[in-house]
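hiii, so i know i said id send this last week but things got crazy w the move. better late than never?? heres the sequnce for the chain we talked about at the cafe, plus the structure i predicted for it. fair warning i was half asleep when i ran it
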Amino acid sequence: MVAPRLLSVARGVADLRREPKEDAELVHQVHIGEMLTLLASRDAWHFVQAEDHYFGWIHGSSAAAQATSATVARCVAVALADVRAEPDRSSPVVDRAPAGAWLPLGRRTDRGGWSR
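okay and structure toks below
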């Protein structure tokens, strides 16, 4: 059996479009950490199927290659969790993850329980 290639949503919230262009109809939104099944690619866009079975085009800047679906993750349990550039409260916020999003658990840092 050939396993499908998987992508992981790399932004807090990313749009799935009907066509591979920014002004195309919005068909669905996916959250950071969600797994997407890659079905096709065209230029900087990927045609994917989301975990909840929606299909659409996502821009490559919003998705990252995923080696396996067996990733250790933690669920966001607040309305919006800040994603910071560095493991420090004074570091700039680079994105926000909505409640219910699954964030891959990276390696722990030595500073106050932060993960990368």
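btw The chain has a mean pLDDT of 84. thought thatd interest u
miss u guys!!
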